[in-house]
Each structure stands twice: as structure tokens, then as C-alpha cells.
Write a structure and sequence with these properties.
The chain is an alpha+beta fold. It contains 26 helices and 19 strands. α7 runs parallel beside α21 and α15 runs antiparallel to α17. It is globular, with a radius of gyration of 25 Å.
């Protein structure tokens, strides 16, 4: 786990010649395992196993006698030093957007005099947190260190909102699971001036009243192609790294080369690799990384890496059936001579819920905790720098609520193909004949529903989410359910009435607050992307292999920005994501793609999740014998145990909701069992976050 932390205060000196602590106490304190990037005033540290090339600092002299302006960029950034200087000068005048336009995924911190600016990303994969502290404000890219700093208790109200409405920012507000620690929204920056703070957005928001002219589809797709190519290029141009520790090679094995033996031992290999699941997103990244001219992975390239083949990793789930077409597509793509294909067999030891008894403590809870072992086994056979296709669906696909945006712009004809596809997905039945009309009415209703009315309706319906909850939705029913400003999450049906009422009160409060209202489809799409990016960040922490870096270019700023420029009429069409990626590859010189390109690659996910739940049922029942979630008043243990048994027997229940409950309970147990703190020194907090390791009782819930 890697993060940065710093603070801004009225005090002019914290004594950073070695360690740091509040001046009025005269005691020292600093993060454990940190390196000081700059000291007084307003110090900044990088904590964790950062690579040398992942920390870049540039300074520019300002006026004589004034301290130089500084910028620190942490992560993978494709900007040159001259571009960093230009961005720093632009930031002096308030042009923060310049600092978010470089290829890669990174966090930028700018210090100009006593003004500190910390910039978050557009998707939310690199969030920024802050909390009042020592007469000023402390900030970090992880919430847990700040919670330790102020000895925070759990915010049970936030956990309830995270379970009840995970895709509704109005319910989550700016909170975190730790009381007193706040998060800035995606697309915003935190500005600190001698302890005072300001949160400002750097991205333009589409007007609700005036429709913007529709972009040219060809130009928009070319923009996505250029952004993806630059995102991949930024990773390929970075220095190569080898894992620090790896199991010893037992020696030659008949029929296995060194790379195959390393994959069998479960250790990342040096160099660049990529997932190759058979889906369009991962295949696009693998082919781009293997084929960029003049870079490692290109047979006719130049330099020390020329001719090196890209390692492509495919997970073969031996417990599932029906994914043979995906494996065959992966094999056809991997026949490219620039790719070295490794198939990782996954038996019962890699099912969801396997290994839930162990694992690291992550910054926050997320459903990824129950599948961390599955991903860790796959990634251990990858490379030190590994591309993953996560986020492509959320970035490129159209949320169903975007149909309402089209109606607001009077583009009714563009609804014909998506509603016809939903009718076909229902199959030949009498119900499928009325699907187009039903979807159109729901989209029109949403287009005429104001932000305030939509949240108030969601708040009124939420307390009944745990009563008479329907079974699993069909594709058309799921789309109809998504045509709203807010909807309950899959775990809401198992929450107590008290918890749901508390979340409903949050929605009612948000409905009357003044906000810059977006179009419903655009707002829902941004919220879904932010939720996925937050979950992906937790997956990186839970499935982390030491010295390995996961790269998700679809979550990069410039890719997200280019995808948002795609016209709505293109995004809402069936198969739009596969069409866009096909054009991206064609523009990069890749034309021969296997049959079935773009077919859904998650058809067996539900069957695999049910198999894993059935296999781990005894451990899950024991987990919910006396759950901490019940102590906090969020669930009733017997209700969850009954649901687990029913789902294992094949009942049509939302398995992702049960995974969310189980992962939150796991995270709570790991948190309260934790020892130590993120800080050291004579002024370090005496207690860690969740002091005493006790979940607040039901009567002390924090809203």
C-alpha cells in the first residue's frame, strides 16, 4: 500500500529537520516508513514501496527572497520535466486542469508559497482525503492514516449508506468509514492556505438547459484511440522493474521454459504484461502494448527492449462451464507472435470467498475482498507492470439513464435500437412486446423528474427496500430500475429498517441542498464510474503482490475525458464499446480480430460466485454467527445466515449484495484486530483508528 500525506497549518514551522510534530507541543511525529518530499512550512511525505521513477519533483524560482514553487507528482506520469514546469506555472494562475491532462495515473501536489493544492483524478481511482488537525488541515491519498492521526471512530452511518446506496453520492456525501475524515469528489482539487481549505472543481459540467452540439463520431473515436495509445505508451516508456523477491527456481522441468516455471510458482516476472480474458477491453490493451512501434514488445522496434514479447495471462476457471468461447478467443489473439500466452488454472482454491480468513487490511471495505485471492493468483503469474482492462464498461458504455438525456435533447430516434435490443434480450414472450414502450415511458418520466423530486422519491422508497424485495431482475427490468436518480444497492434488502431510515434521511437532506445539477444520465454514469474506481483501488490493495503494479488505462484522466466526448447517439447503441475498441485497434493497425469479438465476457460470473458461496458456506455462516454489522445495528444475523443458505441452494438472490455484506464484515474484523498505527514519534497518537477495537453500539450510531 502506497500513499502520500501532508498538512497545512497556521504555524510557520513544524521542525521537519528529521521528524515533524505540532510546534506548540514541541514533540516530533512522522509517518512510519516515510520519505520526506519537502519540509517546513507545510510538509509532505511519501509512504510505502514507491519506485524511484514514481516520485518526481520539480521546482521553479519565483521572486527573489521568495521560496520556490514546487510540484510533486506521484504515480505513473508521461509528462516531461519541461511539461511539469509549464503545468506548475499554469497552476500559479489557477489553471489546475493543465495538471490533469498528462498521460498516466498520478496524484499531483503543488506548493506555491503557503498555498497547497492537491488534485484528485476524474474517475476516483486516486482519491484525496482530508481532516481538520492541529489548527489546520491534514490530507492524504488514504483514509486510514488520517483516521489514525485523529484517533477516529467508525462512521456507522456511512457504512449503512455504502451498503444501501453504493452508487448514490448524495447518500455517501463526502464521508468515509472514519468519522471526521472526508473525501473530495472526483474531478475536484483541495486547496489549502495556512490551514484554511477550499474544494474546487476543475472540469466543466454539461448544461442542463442547453444541449451541447453533438460531436463528430469519427473525431471522438479518434480521440479515444489517441488517449489509449498515449496511456499505454506512458507505461511502456517507464523504467523496467523486476520483483524484489521471488521463490527459487527448482530447476528444469520437461516441457516448461523459465517463464512457465515462474508462472507455476506464482511470482510476477520482470517487464510488461497484460490480462487476456477474451473480452474486448483486456485484448485491446494487450494488442496495443505489444504493437506500439519502436517500443518493447515490437519485433521491428528499436532499443534494448526490441523483440521482447508481451506476457498475456488468461485465467482458466476449472470449476465453471460455458466460458470455452472466451478461452478460444484468448488463444486466437495470443497466437500473435508478439505475445507470450500463459494460462493460469483456477480450481476451488481460486473460487470467490476462498482464503477469506486472511488477507491485508485495506483502506476501506469493498466487494473485492471476497475475490482477492482469486485475483492474486492470476496476477502472481503476470508481470511487474501489468495491464488490466478494468473500467472499460463504466467509461465507454452508456448507463440506461442516458436514454433520458437523449429525450431531453429531443433525439427520440436514437432510442429505437437500445430498446429493441432489450426486447430481444427478454426472449420471445408476450412481455417482450411491451418492453420498448415501457422503457420509453420510464426514460421520459426520468427526463421530466427534477433532481430534488428524484431524491425525495428515492428516500420515500428506501425504507421498504428490505420488504418484499423482488428476485433477480431480467435485463429489461434492470434497465427500468436504473432509470431513476437513485436506486437501492443489492445489499439493501438485508439491512435493518433503522439503517435504511437513516440513509433515507441522508437523501432527504441532500434533496434540499443547493447543487450544480447535471443531466440524470450523465450524473448516474459519473457515480457508477466513481464507485467502480473506488472498488478497483481496494482490489489493488487486497490482491497486491509485492513489487507489482497494476495499470488500468481506462481509468486515466485523458481516457475518461476522451470517452466523455463520445456522442450520446453512439454510446447508447448495442455493442458500442466493442465497436469503439475495434476502431481504436484499426487506427493502431490491428485489423484481424477473432469471431465473437466484443461478446459479453462475464456470462459465468454468477455461476462461479454461487459455486464459491456454496463451497465456503460453513465459513460464511461462522462469520455471521455474531457479526459486528449486527452489533452496529445494520443487519440481523439470522436474516443474513438464512439468505446465505438460500443462495447456496440456488435461490434467485443478488449474490453481489451478499458479497458486499461479507466483505464489509471481513473488513470490520480486520480493522478491530489491527495492531499498531501509521504514525511514530513522541507526539504520535496513543490509539489507532477505531480506538480500543470496538464497533460503536447501536445507540451511538453516527449519521
Amino acid at each position: 500500500m502506497r500513499w502520500l500525506v501532508g498538512w497545512s497549518s497556521i504555524a510557520a514551522s513544524f521542525g521537519t529537520a528529521g521528524a515533524v510534530g505540532p510546534l506548540d507541543e514541541g514533540r516530533a511525529m512522522h509517518p512510519v516508513g516515510s520519505q520526506l518530499l519537502w519540509g517546513d512550512p507545510d510538509p509532505l511525505w511519501a509512504v510505502g514501496d514507491w519506485r524511484p521513477d514514481e516520485i518526481r519533483r520539480v521546482s521553479v524560482e519565483t521572486a527573489p527572497g521568495e521560496p520556490p514553487a514546487r510540484i510533486a507528482v506521484l504515480g505513473c506520469c508521461g509528462a516531461t520535466d519541461e511539461q511539469l514546469r509549464s503545468g506548475l506555472l499554469a497552476a500559479r494562475g489557477g489553471a489546475l486542469r493543465h495538471l490533469t491532462s498528462w498521460p498516466g495515473s498520478y496524484t499531483a501536489v503543488v506548493r506555491i508559497g503557503r498555498r497547497i493544492t492537491v488534485i484528485g483524478d476524474l474517475a476516483g481511482a486516486r482519491p484525496v482525503f482530508y481532516t481538520p488537525w492541529a489548527g489546520g488541515t491534514a490530507y492524504a491519498t488514504a483514509a486510514l492514516p488520517l483516521a489514525d492521526l485523529i484517533e477516529a471512530q467508525l462512521d456507522i452511518g456511512h457504512l449503512a449508506a455504502l451498503l444501501a446506496c453504493p452508487e448514490t453520492p448524495q447518500a455517501l456525501r463526502d464521508g468515509t468509514p472514519y468519522a471526521g475524515v472526508k473525501r473530495i469528489p472526483p474531478g475536484h482539487a483541495l486547496i489549502l492556505r495556512e490551514g484554511s481549505r477550499e474544494i474546487t472543481g476543475y472540469e466543466a459540467v454539461a448544461s442542463l438547459a442547453v444541449a451541447a452540439p453533438e460531436a463528430d463520431p469519427v473525431t471522438a473515436v479518434d480521440g479515444v484511440r489517441d488517449a489509449l495509445v498515449e496511456a499505454v505508451r506512458a507505461r511502456l516508456l517507464a523504467p523496467r522493474h523486476a520483483p524484489e523477491t521471488a521463490p527459487p527456481d527448482p530447476g528444469p522441468v520437461p516441457g516448461m521454459g523459465p517463464a512457465d516455471r515462474r508462472a507455476a510458482r506464482g511470482a510476477p516476472v520482470p517487464g510488461i504484461g497484460a490480462d487476456l480474458s477474451g473480452g474486448s477491453a483486456s485484448a485491446t490493451l494487450a494488442l496495443l502494448a505489444a504493437g506500439l512501434p519502436g517500443l518493447p514488445g515490437t519485433l521491428l522496434g528499436h532499443g534494448t527492449g526490441a523483440g521482447t514479447r508481451l506476457l498475456a495471462v488468461t485465467l482458466n476457471d476449472l470449476t465453471a462451464h460455458g466460458h470455452e468461447e472466451e478461452l478460444e478467443r484468448a488463444r486466437v489473439i495470443a497466437a500473435d507472435p508478439r505475445l507470450h500466452h500463459v494460462v493460469v488454472p483456477a480450481g476451488e482454491e481460486a473460487l470467490p470467498y476462498a482464503g477469506i480468513g486472511g488477507g491485508p487490511l485495506t483502506d476501506e471495505p469493498a466487494p473485492a475482498l471476497v475475490v482477492a485471492e482469486r485475483h492474486r493468483r492470476r496476477l502472481a503469474s503476470g508481470s511487474a507492470d501489468h495491464f488490466v482492462g478494468g473500467g472499460a464498461r463504466q467509461v465507454l458504455d452508456a448507463h440506461p439513464a442516458r436514454l433520458a438525456d437523449l429525450l431531453m435533447d429531443r433525439r427520440r430516434r436514437h432510442l429505437l435500437r437500445p430498446v429493441a435490443a432489450l426486447a430481444r434480450a427478454e426472449g420471445p414472450s408476450a412481455h417482450s412486446l411491451v418492453v420498448p414502450l415501457t422503457v420509453y415511458r420510464a426514460a421520459r418520466r426520468l427526463s421530466r423528474t427534477s433532481y430534488r423530486t428524484g431524491l425525495e422519491l428515492a428516500a420515500d422508497r428506501l425504507p421498504d427496500a428490505n420488504r418484499n424485495a423482488p428476485a433477480l431482475d431480467t435485463p429489461a427490468e434492470a434497465s427500468l430500475d436504473a432509470l431513476a436518480w437513485s436506486r437501492p444497492g443489492p445489499a439493501a434488502r438485508w439491512l435493518t429498517g433503522e439503517a435504511l431510515a437513516e440513509v433515507a434521511a441522508r437523501l432527504q437532506d441532500a434533496a434540499v441542498r443547493p447543487v450544480s445539477v447535471q443531466r440524470p444520465g450523465d450524473a448516474r454514469a459519473r457515480a457508477v464510474l466513481a464507485r467502480y474506481a473506488a472498488d478497483h483501488r481496494i482490489l489493488e490493495q487486497a490482491a497486491e503482490n509485492r513489487s507489482q503494479r497494476l495499470h488500468a488505462p481506462f481509468l486515466d484522466n485523458q481516457v475518461v475525458r476522451a470517452a466523455r466526448a463520445l456522442p450520446e447517439s453512439l454510446r447508447v447503441q448495442p455493442g458500442a464499446r466493442a465497436t469503439v475498441l475495434r476502431r481504436v485497434l484499426a487506427g493502431a493497425g490491428v485489423h484481424d480480430l477473432p469471431s465473437g469479438w466484443g461478446a459479453p465476457s462475464h456470462a459465468t460470473a454468477d455461476a462461479t460466485a454461487r459455486t464459491g458461496l456454496r463451497t465456503a458456506l460453513p465459513e460464511l455462516i461462522a462469520l455471521f454467527e455474531a457479526p459486528l454489522l449486527a452489533d452496529a445495528g445494520l443487519v440481523e444475523a439470522r436474516v443474513v445466515r438464512k439468505a446465505l443458505r438460500a443462495a447456496a441452494d440456488g435461490a434467485p438472490l443478488p449474490l453481489d449484495g451478499l458479497a458486499h455484506l461479507a466483505s464489509t464484515e471481513l473488513w470490520l474484523r480486520r480493522l478491530v484486530a489491527r495492531r499498531g498505527t501509521c504514525w511514530t514519534g513522541t507526539a504520535a497518537p496513543r490509539q489507532r483508528a477505531v480506538a480500543g477495537g470496538v464497533v460503536p453500539a447501536r445507540r451511538t450510531l453516527q449519521a
